[in-house]
Amino acid sequence: MDLSWCRFVGALVVAILLCLQGFCYSEQAPNYSFVHDSTSAPNISYYDYIIIGGGTAGCPLAATLSQNYSVLLIERGGSPYGFYTRASVDYVNNAGWDGNLVNQSYQWVEKLVAFEPPMRQWQSAVRDGLLEVGVTPYNGFTYDHIIGTKVGGTIFDRDGHRHTAADLLEYANPKGLTVLLNATVHQILFRTKGKAKPTAHGVIFSDSLGIKHRAQLNKGSKNEIILSAGALGSPQLLMLSGVGPAEHLRSHNITVLVDQPMVGQGMSDNPMNAIYIPSPLDVEVSLIQVVGITPVGSYIEAASGANFGSPAGMQSFGMFEPQTGELFTVRSDQSNPGMAKFFEAMKPADRVFRGGFILEKVLGPSSTGHLELRNKNPHDNPSVRFNYFQDPEDLRRCAEGIRIISRVIASRAFSKFTYPYLSFPALVNMTLSFPVNMLPKHNNVTSSHEQFCRDSVMTIWHYHGGNQVGKVVDNDYKVLGVDALRVIDGSTFQYSPGTNPQATVMMLGRYMGVKIANDRVKSDGSS
């Protein structure tokens, strides 16, 4: 296949993946009175709780604690304007969480951000194909994580508006919460003099103009700083603050406060592999709605859409690449009979290339890596190695998932969305003809599902680990070796919950907010 075809397929998949990240739907940002740009922050301010990271965990946590305490929520980005499913019962039990409070916390989240998606032709065909090939039973629409095929929740409402964790700030007490946007935390401050352990008492952050500000905790033994900056941000900030592997910190001229070798360890990202499927029929624009939760340790999901039209007069099909702004064009590859027939079937008047993809995500995963600092600049991302498929079990699960996808594509239920002359090996080659990653490609991908998994692996942005429970934090998410500091986000997870972690991370923010508030009331009552 020629380079233009590679670019086209790559652009189409990038476009759909961007849709999965929420760039393809309008968003309605609430006009909260307590949200301000960080340039308006005073030089120094005081709060009962300082939460670093206004994302999936930080927003519900801040909304909950603001009911009775003064809370500062520091967010690195601006105002944040796929798929919603809970963790399994086993995951909840293994985490040691209170099941009743977990359910109450999920329901608190779901009132504002989760909806039942409309089931149209592509997603219905995927659902029926999964059932036809034995991914049973059919569990209907449910947030619960159950073996079989189900329709999960969506964070898009019926009007196409995307809802995020930021919507949960609607629950907040406006008098108790301050949210600062475009603020980058440089360091957590600790007191050591006269303390049994280093005690967090404040943070230094810079605004969008580069001016530094300080936020400090009010006096009181129960006041805390809470890191909710995610699997990449939270381990990075601990290290920048002197909590991490001593040798690594010294190599960056960072004063070691606590030698904690497990900070940045156990990093994981669930590998994703997708098969692109061009369709002879129009397909709806859909994100992840149906999921096949298989007993072999892989999850099967799908998305669909159409590309932008090509310029008038060009005898080719166009695709606007959203990351670079380039218009790529696709021309028929006459050396491939199947592809030549495919392009012949695409009438020039249509000017639209239809299709979507079916993907699989590996449970767990079992493979882990590590995170390290590149430098001392908090604006720069850390260096992360996830070691995809290092554990053979992950590779086995991926290969089984690809086999299930091949059977779904060949099913009667899905047949109207496939070209009969495009075999599964042809779809594999088509998918690998664009640069999904920087890895070298091999000639045996059509005969080895394992090799296809290695060659086509992509991220699904489900990063976790780096501050795991029992290694960096205790069961109450308090950082070991210091006082007045917790980490509450996906960096504490041993493995990813359910088919998508965002529901559980939002639940955890609410869950721990309730626990912290309740424990504080009990403590105050007994003193």
Automatic annotation (TrEMBL):
The keyword Flavoprotein applies. Disulfide bonds join 398-453. InterPro entries: FAD/NAD-bd_sf, GMC_Oxidoreductase-Related, GMC_OxRdtase, GMC_OxRdtase_N, GMC_OxRtase_C. Its cofactor is FAD. The keyword Lyase does not apply. GO terms for molecular function: flavin adenine dinucleotide binding; oxidoreductase activity, acting on CH-OH group of donors. Gene3D superfamilies: 3.30.410.40, FAD/NAD(P)-binding domain (3.50.50.60). This is Glucose-methanol-choline oxidoreductase N-terminal domain-containing protein. It comes from Aquilegia coerulea (Rocky mountain columbine).
